[in-house]
Amino acid sequence: MTVQSTADEVQSAPATDRTAPPTPTAVDTKAAATDAAAIDATTADTAAINGAANDSKGPTDVDGSAWDANDAVTAYEATPRGKRQLVHPTAVAAAAAVAAAADDHDAEAGGWPADPPPTVAAAARAAAVAADALAAPTDRGLLGGALLSEAVGTAIMVAATVGGVVAATVGTSTAAAASSATAHAATRAGATAGGASAAEMAVASAVAGVGLFVSVLIAGPRSGAHLNPAVSLAVAINRPACLPLPLLVAYVVAQMLGAFVGGATIYSLWHGPLNAYEAAHGIRRGTAASAASAAGFVCVAAPRVTLAMAVAAEMAGTAALVAVTAAVMDGRRGGVSRTRSGGRRSGGGGSDGAAAVVARAAAIGATYAALEVSLGPLTGGCFNSARDLGPRVVLAMANWGQVAFPGATSAWWVYLAAPLVGGPLGMAAYDALLRAPTL
Which residue has the higher pLDDT, 407 or 172? Predict the structure, then answer.
């Protein structure tokens, strides 16, 4: 049954056949959700709702008394799973199409059943996932492209973040440049608070923000542009239908590989200047002094920053970054929806849609840059487990020894664990307190 034929049948049906159904109970909707899980992958109605969502249109309620899109969405949101999903306004019309198609013979019998048809719950769930810009592709054929996008996007982001600091730290191998770079490296590595200019810090932070901006533009249409294990874990915990556990693992692996490639790329390009920098300052790689040449590749807390302060700063920074990401990628604010190919587009379409995509990416990049400026001097500004761990492995392979693991302050785990705690908290706070209303 197609969406259009369903719409024609509903509109041509006698008014008496469109009796409003009783208000569903919690038990009814829970049962519907359970049934929906079994048919979600195969029902033709789920395919119909995806097609209608792509066009941002679908049959609407004829006389206000039939079981319409709002009823379908409300029934789904009353389920335990539905409470944890985000439903986009453009999905409402699509839900109406499936609501009309599901068990339409019951309308001929004089009214809808008390239990919402299972296909309605399945359709509403599919619409919620399709509308979430952070959701992984539902088509397995698109998963490879999504994982590649995550790896490439993370590599670009890490290369920009690490490269910006390494450039300011190492500069050239001349004595004058090295003298200036030493102070900057000490600041980023936590050795001293003086010497590095505000301009150097601002430039390195701006480069990091631009790197994330470009990465979001590249990866967003295919994968949702997580580019950060903290974002992926936040989606998996707070919106489980959008990123099931197997996909969470795949996303994180892709991000870690991308971070390693990004760090390795910067090391290979700056290998010569790094050697010259160390030779000019009598630094033997692997000793405590080589923390200066490793600055930028890994994050290190400043001397007077306690372990608790470092954990708190990384958690808070990651929570803020993930909350902003959830806000600007919230399709209900700007019309982000999945295209027929499984990617995402702005509901505005055309140049307005492109401008909205660029604005979202810019907002995420600017937030990252701002956090680098405000919290970077405390901890080095990680906010992303992959950003630290990937380059840290590169350092270990390049003979930095204990500077890589366990790190200059023996607290490398802070940059792995703290973001993974802060990210889910940030998204949970946004979903509970700040998310846009459904309608």
Answer: 407
pTM confidence score: 0.72
Cα(344)–Cα(361) distance, integer angstroms: 14
Q: With contact defined as beta carbons under 8 Å apart, do 220 and 361 qualify?
A: yes
Q: For residue 135, give the DSSP letter.
A: S
- The SS3 of residue 336 is strand
Q: Which residues contact 199 (CB under 8 A, 6 or more apart)?
A: none
Long-range CB pairs of 397-404, under 8 A, 24+ apart, other chains included: 398/267, 398/285, 399/285, 399/286, 400/285, 400/286, 400/290, 400/294, 401/285, 401/286, 401/287, 402/286, 403/286, 403/287, 403/288, 403/290, 403/291, 403/294, 403/298, 404/294, 404/298
Pairwise CA distance, residues 107 & 17, whole Å: 5
Q: What span, in angstroms and rounded, lies between the C-alpha atoms of 52 and 341?
A: 14
Q: Which residues contact 433 (CB under 8 A, 6 or more apart)?
A: none
For the cut 60, the answer to whether the pLDDT of residue 41 exceeds it is no
